Automatic annotation (TrEMBL):
Residues 184-203 have a biased composition (Acidic residues). It comes from the Eukaryota. Residues 109-176 form the Histone-binding protein RBBP4-like N-terminal domain. It is found in: Nucleus. WD repeats lie at residues 319-361, 415-450. GO terms for cellular component: nucleolus. Residues 1-13 have a biased composition (Basic and acidic residues). This is BN860_10660g1_1. Residues 1-35, 181-205 are annotated as: Disordered.
C-alpha cells in the first residue's frame, strides 16, 4: 500500500473513532447526591458539561485535529506541486529534439512528430506512388504572398512499380491554411470559429502518361510570363521529354475546360543520350526562347535550343571523356553562355557554350566521392553550393577559381552535419544567405550563412546549453521527411518550401525563415 493511501486510511480511522457513538470512550462515573436542577435539565448533562470530560473527549483533540488538517493540506499541496513538476520534466524528456548527428536511430515502431509551434505552415500530400523530383510552376497570383490561405502550382513525376503506370503530375494546391497552435485556455466558441476558418486544403490534378520513371524534372522559369508552361523530364530510358502544360494549368482556372489530346503528348523528345539515363537537367534563366541542358551517366552533356518553332540539339556533347556520370547541372544566373556541372568523379566544372572544343573552362576537385547536387546563388552569382555522397556540403567562391589556380581551392564554408548523402541543395532565391539542404538521413536542414560563430549571443547560448556545442550556429531548422529526394523554394511565397520523399510531398514554412 502506498504512503498516500495509508495516510488517508489513518485519517479516516481517526474521524470514525470520534464520530461513532458506540465506539467513543466512556468517561468515569462519580456517584454524587441527586440535586434538583429544574424541569429543563438534561439527564445526560453531567457527562458532557464536566470540564474534565470535555478536555478528555473534545476540545484539545479537535484543536489538534485542526492543526493536523492544516499540516495535511500543506503536505498534499507540496506533493501535488512535485507531481506536476515531475510530469513536466517527463513530458520534456519524451519530446526529444531529433538531430541526425546526435540522436539515436528510430526504432521499428517509432515515428517523429512535427512540433506545430515551429511551423507557420505544414501540409502533407499523399500520392499513389513516390516521386523523386518536383518543381514549382510560377503563377500569376503575384509575389511576396504572405496572407493565408495560400495557393500554388507544382509539377512532379512518379516512380511506379510498373513503367506503364508512371505519370507526370500537374497539381494545384489551394486553401493551404496557416498552422494553428491551439491554446487550452481558449473558449469553445473561439475554437469553433477557428475550425470554420481552418478549411480543408483542396488538391486538383491533371496527369500525363509517361513511358518510364522520371529521374529529374524542371519547369521553365518563364512559365508564367507567356502562353507556355515548358516542363522537361529526364527518364530512366534515356529520353528527355519537353511538355507544354499550359492547358493543364488552364483547366484549374476554367471550370469545364477539357485538356486537348495534343497537350497530353510531349512537344519534343531528346534522344541524343541513347538508352543512357541521366540526372543533369536545367533550363536557362536568361534565354526566354528556351535553352535546356541535359547530362547523362556516361558524362555527356547536350544543349537543346528552340529556333523559331523547332527544337535543335547540338550533335557534339560537352564532355571530358572520362565516362563518369553527370549528377547535376546549373546555368549561371547572370551569364547566358555559362553553366556548371558536377559528377561522380568528385569534380565541379564550369563550362562555356561558346567553346568549340566543348571542354570545361575550369575544373576543381570538390570531393573524394560523388558530388550529387549543386546550386548557383541567384543574388550573389559568385557563390556555388555543392553536396556529396559523404553527407558533406559546402559553398564555393568562384572568384577564387581560374584555369591555373583551381587545384587546392577550398570552399569558403563547409559542413559535415548530415549523416547520409546529400540529395538536394537549393539557395533561397529571396535571401542570398539562406540555403536548404536535403539528405538521405531523412532530413531537410535550413542554414543561414550570415550568422557568425563569434557572435556574443551565440557564444552565450553555447555556454548555457551544452547540446548547442555540437550544432553549427548557422543551422536554423531541421525538418524530418522520410527518404527525402528533392527540395525547392517557392519564389512567390517567401520562406515556403516544397519537398518530396517516399511518404509524399511536404509543403511547409518555418518560423525561422
Amino acid at each position: 500500500m502506498s504512503k498516500r493511501s495509508l495516510d488517508n486510511e489513518e485519517q479516516h480511522r481517526v474521524v470514525s473513532a470520534k464520530t461513532d457513538a458506540h465506539g467513543a470512550p466512556q468517561p468515569a462515573v462519580v456517584e454524587e447526591p441527586d440535586i434538583h436542577m429544574g424541569e429543563y435539565e438534561d439527564q445526560y448533562s453531567d457527562e458532557y458539561e464536566s470540564e474534565d470530560d470535555i478536555v478528555e473527549i473534545g476540545d484539545d483533540e479537535e484543536i489538534e485535529e485542526e492543526g493536523d488538517d492544516k499540516e495535511y493540506i500543506d503536505r498534499k499541496q507540496i506533493e501535488a506541486q512535485e507531481a506536476v513538476k515531475k510530469d513536466q520534466e517527463d513530458s520534456v524528456q519524451q519530446k526529444e529534439i531529433y538531430l541526425p548527428h546526435m540522436s539515436r536511430p528510430l526504432g521499428p515502431d517509432e515515428v517523429l512528430e512535427a512540433d506545430p509551434s515551429v511551423y507557420e505552415m505544414l501540409h502533407n500530400v499523399n500520392l499513389p506512388w513516390p516521386c523523386m523530383t518536383l518543381d514549382v510552376i510560377p503563377d500569376t497570383l503575384g509575389s511576396e504572398r504572405r496572407n493565408y490561405p495560400q495557393s500554388l502550382l507544382l509539377a512532379t513525376a512518379t516512380q511506379a512499380s510498373k513503367k506503364k503506370d508512371n505519370e507526370l503530375l500537374i497539381l494545384k494546391l489551394s486553401q493551404l491554411s496557416k498552422t494553428l497552435v491551439k491554446d487550452d485556455t481558449e473558449d469553445n466558441d473561439e475554437d469553433e470559429d477557428d475550425e470554420d476558418a481552418d478549411s480543408d486544403p483542396i488538391i486538383e490534378n491533371e496527369n500525363i502518361s509517361l513511358k518510364d520513371t522520371t529521374n529529374r524534372l524542371k519547369v521553365s522559369p518563364f512559365a508564367s510570363h507567356g502562353q507556355e508552361v515548358l516542363t522537361a523530364s529526364m527518364s530512366e530510358n534515356g529520353e528527355v521529354y519537353i511538355f507544354d502544360v499550359a492547358a493543364q494549368t488552364k483547366a484549374f482556372e476554367t471550370p469545364g475546360y477539357q485538356v486537348p489530346k495534343a497537350a497530353r503528348r510531349a512537344m519534343h523528345t531528346i534522344r541524343n543520350h541513347g538508352n543512357v539515363e541521366g540526372y543533369g537537367l536545367d533550363w536557362s534563366p536568361l534565354l526566354k526562347t528556351g535553352a535546356l541542358l541535359t547530362g547523362d551517366c556516361s558524362g555527356q552533356i547536350y544543349l537543346t535550343q528552340r529556333h523559331t518553332s523547332k527544337w535543335i540539339t547540338d550533335k557534339q556533347p560537352f564532355s571530358v571523356s572520362n565516362n563518369e556520370s553527370i549528377e547535376d547541372i546549373q546555368w549561371s544566373p547572370t551569364e547566358s553562355t555559362v553553366f556548371a556541372s558536377c559528377g561522380t568523379d568528385g569534380y565541379i566544372r564550369i563550362w562555356d557554350t561558346r567553346s568549340k572544343k566543348h571542354k570545361p573552362a575550369i575544373s576543381t576537385k570538390a570531393s573524394t566521392t560523388d558530388v550529387n547536387v549543386i546550386s548557383w546563388n541567384e543574388k550573389l552569382s559568385y557563390l556555388l553550393a555543392s553536396g556529396d555522397d559523404n553527407g558533406s556540403w559546402g559553398v564555393w567562391d568562384l572568384r577564387q577559381l581560374s584555369p591555373t589556380t583551381s587545384d587546392g581551392v577550398q570552399p569558403v564554408a563547409q559542413y559535415d552535419f548530415h549523416k547520409g548523402p546529400i540529395t538536394s541543395i537549393c539557395f533561397n532565391p529571396l535571401d542570398d544567405s539562406v540555403i536548404a539542404v536535403a539528405s538521405e538521413d531523412n532530413t531537410v536542414t535550413l542554414w543561414d550563412l550570415s550568422v557568425e560563430a563569434d557572435d556574443e549571443e551565440i557564444q552565450q547560448q553555447t555556454r548555457d546549453f551544452k547540446e548547442l556545442q555540437q550544432i553549427p550556429p548557422q543551422l536554423l531548422f531541421v525538418h524530418w521527411q522520410k527518404d527525402v529526394k528533392d527540395v525547392k523554394w517557392h519564389k512567390q511565397i517567401p520562406g515556403c518550401l516544397l519537398s518530396t520523399g517516399t511518404d509524399g510531398l511536404n509543403v511547409w514554412k518555418t518560423i525561422s525563415v
